[in-house]
Specification:
It contains 16 helices and 7 strands. The chain has helices spanning 2-12, 15-20, 26-35, 63-71, 109-115, 118-121, 124-139, 142-146, 151-161, 194-212, 254-264, 274-287, 301-306, 308-319, 335-338, 352-361, and strands spanning 51-57, 76-79, 162-166, 186-189, 221-225, 245-251, 296-300. Helix 5 packs antiparallel against helix 7.
């Protein structure tokens, strides 16, 4: 009866939806590319950008404000979400938006590095899982889906990290992982040193940036949104991937974060109770605690809006810019407009008691 019902439902729905609703077509695309005869790709060893900046935050902490600020400098090319705190919300040149997730997400470059350890290399299940997670992360990424010209780069990287592919008509390993629908083949990881892997990733990223920004570069510093994570780890961990990279971390009064999460039901940010929220924020700030130095600059969202000139000077000194580079000042980040967001959390009296409790428990993460 159950099978008959399933058949009836399938017959009523569009064929394409039934076949492709979960199917990952990365390997189909890869096989087509291999048959094309144009599969001899060499990664670039140099990048059109001289330096890199990643803007990190603790979740709804206002890091978009710094992205908007850096859009105003003729030294910067910005890859990030559309202007969030902008007074001018016209579309940006290039049209490449969003957080850069190819490194930090499960299946991304950092994940594959972790799985390159000896233990994973000799464990067929782990190696197969690693390659399939990579395929999932890439295939469903905005870059792969929206910029088809970049796909040969992903196929080439896939070839570099995969030692063997055993074609199967049915799942053989990790059969419980239904998210791998369409990935029946078995994969093994290629064994390489950390230095070799870092060089591979660096040249892959260079090639990707060179292709995407070949005719869209507006400054020689590429600004990225959360490229390696959410403030965690020392920057020396990431320099082998992108030399000359710096990080700006934006923090915010956690009461504003809490009210925002409650009002918008931000499910990934713990807010079912004050206690759950406080536990989450303590964890985020503890694992991400950094002192400002040559590679890290921590800014307070509220100070950016209320002490604009002082905070902008900090950013310029940190990045080696001057005020002359600030050619579109207050075009995308106008503090006179955006400072209304600073204490807006006070306006919703529904959360006054909760905010008072948060101030008692974690005063060090509150502003004023």
């Amino acid at each position: 009866m159950k099978n008959k019902l399933r058949h009836i439902i399938k017959s009523c729905l569009p064929h394409g939806y039934i076949v492709n609703r979960k199917r990952n077509c990365f390997l189909d695309d890869y096989d087509t590319w291999k048959r094309s005869g144009n599969s001899n790709i060499t990664f670039d060893s140099h990048c059109i950008f001289d330096s890199f900046v990643t803007i990190d935050g603790y979740g709804c902490s206002g890091s978009s404000a710094i992205m908007d600020l850096l859009r105003e400098y003729d030294t910067c090319t910005v890859w990030a979400s559309k202007p969030a705190y902008a007074s001018n919300t016209e579309s940006m040149n290039g049209g490449i938006y969003g957080e850069f997730d190819l490194c930090r997400h499960t299946g991304g470059l950092l994940y594959i590095e972790h799985m390159m350890k000896e233990e994973a290399w000799v464990n067929d299940f782990w190696a197969d899982d690693a390659v399939k997670n990579f395929i999932q992360a890439i295939y469903y990424s905005d870059i792969y889906q929206n910029y088809p010209s970049t796909r040969p780069l992903f196929f080439t990287f896939f070839e570099h990290i995969t030692d063997q592919r055993i074609k199967c008509s049915m799942p053989q390993l990790n059969v419980w992982q239904h998210r791998f629908t369409g990935l029946n083949d078995i994969f093994t990881l290629k064994k390489m040193s950390k230095t070799e892997y870092h060089e591979l990733c660096r040249h892959f990223l260079y090639s990707l940036f060179n292709m995407l920004f070949a005719d869209k570069i507006s400054g020689k510093t590429l600004v990225l949104d959360h490229i390696f994570g959410d403030c965690g780890d020392d920057m020396s961990r990431f320099e082998p991937y992108l030399p000359n990279i710096k990080r700006i971390i934006v923090t915010r009064d956690v009461r504003a974060v809490y009210v925002h999460a409650c009002q918008n039901n931000t499910e990934w940010l713990a807010h079912d109770s004050v206690e759950a929220f406080v536990k989450w924020e303590r964890k985020m700030h503890y694992r991400s605690k950094h002192e400002s130095d040559n590679n890290n600059l921590e800014l307070q969202f509220e100070d950016i809006m209320l002490n604009y000139d002082r905070e902008v000077a900090k950013v310029e000194q940190f990045l080696g810019f001057t005020s002359q580079h600030h050619t579109a000042k207050k075009t995308y980040l106008n503090p006179e407009i955006s400072k209304s967001n600073v204490f807006s959390w006070r306006d919703d009296k529904l959360y006054t008691t909760d905010c008072d409790r948060i101030k008692e428990l974690i005063p060090e993460y509150c502003y004023g």
